[in-house]
Amino acid sequence: SCSWLGLSLTSSEFWCASPMKRVDAREDAMFVDAHVELLQERGHRARAARLFPILQWLPAYEWHNNLPSDVASGVTIGCVLMAQSIAHAQLSGVSLVHGPYSCVVPPVMYMLLGTSRHGSVGTGGLVALLTGAEMARYETEAERTQAAMVLAFLVGIIMITMGSLRLASLVRFMSRPALSGFVTGSALLIVESQLPGALGYHGAKFLPLMWSIVTGEKPVHMPTVALSVCILATLLSFKRLAKVLSVVKALTEFKEIIVMSLSTIFCLIFGASLGIELIGALPTGLPMPTLPAMSQGLINELLPGAFLLSLIVFISSYAAAKKIAMLEGYQIDPTSELLGLGIANAAGACVGAIPTQIGLSRTGIAYASGAKSQIGTGLVTASVIMLSLMLLTPLFYFMPRCVLNCVIIAAAKGLVDFDEPLWLYNLPVNWRDLKDLVVWAIAFVVTLFCGAFQGMLWATVLSMFLLVLEVTEPNLSVLALEEDKWQSCTDLAGSQDGDFLVARVDGILFFANVERFQEQIESVMHARMRRKGETIKYVVLDFSCVPFLDATVVEVLREMVQAWQRQGTELRIANSHGRARRVLEKELGSDIGQGNFRISAQEALCEMKSHQHSGSGGYVPPGCV
Fold it and tell me: 76 exposed, middle or buried (CB, 10 Å; 0-12, 13-18, 19+)?
């Protein structure tokens, strides 16, 4: 029958009906088929919209109102990104032109699959540092460039796999203190790696270089040092001057372009006579699409680093996108972000890109400049980079290399966060709560002295370790009746007189912590016996904060019930709800002798007392009279 569509004609009635009725039935059947096809089409559209979020916002895009803002914002970000990407390529140790190459295809791919309206995809200082650390094993620039493209491809494949399996929640196990310590240590590593170039010794190691300068083996190149000091002073003073001069405030977003342009003009006139190292010729034109040349040996070398780098790409990008999304009041889908960033990296690697991310500073620029969608931060930005590669690369010939080092050093200042450890130091109420500060310090020190990848690994491991510590130590609160309310006691043995114990589990109970919970309950009961000389006859467990119970918890609770029954101790479970209540009713109701697990702690205690002391004049707790 088709009664669910308002059709009451059954199949037997169809074949036995008159010719007119058979025609009506055929029309009804055609209507059913059309309705089913419509539902299927809507299902396909919904799935396509989930996979390609652009299908959700592009049809509703207000071209007349939003396009001018997107074009203006995209041009601004494109100019900034062109300058930053060259500096990030130098930090990565690859050919400089591959910085802009990394900002052509990835922003467009993210526009199709990402959910951030303001996220600016391109090169980033933190990811460039990690890429450079991974590339340090290769001797020549050509080898490093090729390996960086393969690394970007592997990062993309890993993120696509995680997104397809909906594992976004599993890659967010790095706590805020661990991440802050890692980022701060990485920022100092960035500064340390760029100081030799700012002193005129591109490619040298900082500590050996300083020793050579101190011992007189290498002279200080004063023209390069003087130019670097002027550039750094200009970059770092922009923010302060912007507070007092409105003209400077309008130019703050273009500070990298300004210092690059001025230093290029200076070196065009005086660079040759002063001996300042220049960038030289950059290839003109767009990269040709081609799959990165990969070998099994190269993949084996890069795969561990690719896994760790994919975590940082997602964590840093998601944090930047979510920060602006919260200000604008829209949602960021982590699974879509994984897929969008993954395809951006994988597709970008096929046109010469190194690993890319959503840049926090550029995303902030997009928000401040009025970007409305990825048309500005994605399409327009990529178009600006493409035009620059086709027309403007000859202008970079006389740009000094030291300006790239100074741009990166100035940007690294924004990554340093020493306010976090000070806050963590003042946060705890006792010394045991200093574990977050210890995690920050370990992540910072390991990153600073052992390298970025070691620091990231330790930060992740420490975050996981903290998580394990938290979930394996259930928080048990002993309750006492004060002012007609059951409230937590500061004393675990409990301040309430009588032969009963009321306790609440503040958190989840599962296989990893239920035995520890059993030990805590038994310890409290023994402490009560030693200090007050009382045997606990009645136990009430408040499960109001327990959302679910697994098989291990049920078995341990059954063992506790059986042991207490042999000792003459009775148990009731109060305030249970949801899945936990249904499991208790099914598995433990008959063992405990309890039918209603929703009762309050007071009702549970009164119920047990009424059974034992009915007419005997025994002790009854307050509120049960």
Answer: buried
Provide the whole-model pTM.
Answer: 0.75
Q: What is the separation, in whole angstroms, between the first and last Cα of the chain?
A: 62
Q: Are 452 and 186 in contact (CB under 8 A)?
A: yes
Q: Mutual orientation of helices 141-164 and 296-328 as an angle, nearest 10°?
A: 60
Distance CA 107, CA 322 (A): 17
Question: Burial, 244: exposed, middle or buried (Cβ in 10 Å; 0-12, 13-18, 19+)?
Answer: exposed
CB 415 within 8 A of CB 190: yes
Amino acid at 359: G
How many residues can be counted in the chain?
625
- Tokens representing 167? 């594992």
Average model confidence (pLDDT) across the chain = 84
Cα distance between residue 177 and residue 173, in whole Å: 12
**pLDDT at position 402:** 92
Alpha carbon distance 321, 228 (integer Å): 33
Sequence-distant (6+) residues with CB within 8 A of 258 are 234, 251
Rounded distance, CA 378 to CA 371, Å?
10
Buried b (16+ CB within 10 A) or exposed e, 397-429: ebbbbbbbbbbbbbbbeebebeebbeebeeeee
Element (H, E) at 504: strand 500-505
Percentage helix, strand, coil for the chain under 3-state DSSP, each rounded to 5: 65, 5, 30
User: 309 with 127: CB under 8 angstroms?
Assistant: yes
Name 121's bridge partners.
Answer: 358
**Cβ-contact 356, 102 below 8 angstroms:** yes
Q: What angle do CA 461, 462, 464 make, to 5 degrees?
A: 65
Residue with token string 């997107």: 70
Cα angle for residues 261, 200, 447 (degrees, 5° grid): 100
Q: What is the dihedral of CA 355, 359, 365, 369, to 10 degrees?
A: 60
What would the 3-class secondary structure string for 41-110 be? HHHHHHHHHHHCCHHHHCCCCCHHHHHHHHHHHHHHHHHHHHHHHHHHHHHHCCCCCHHHHCCCHHHHHH
CB atoms within 10 A of CB 441: 15
Model confidence pLDDT, tens digit, residues 292-302? 989 999 999 99
Rg (the chain; Cα; Å): 33
Strands (DSSP E) found in 528-623 = 538-542, 570-574
The helix or strand, by DSSP H or E, that contains position 362, with its residue range, turns out to be: helix 360-368
**Per-residue pLDDT for 265 more than 90?**
yes
CA distance to 128, 206, 346, per residue, from 405 (Å): 13, 13, 28
The secondary structure element, H or E, covering residue 359 is none
- For the ranges 165-174, 319-328, 346-355, the maximum mean pLDDT occurs at 346-355
Q: Does residue 518 surpass a pLDDT of 50?
A: yes
Burial class (CB within 10 angstroms; exposed 0-12, middle 13-18, buried 19+) of 597: buried
Structure tokens at 54: 């652009």
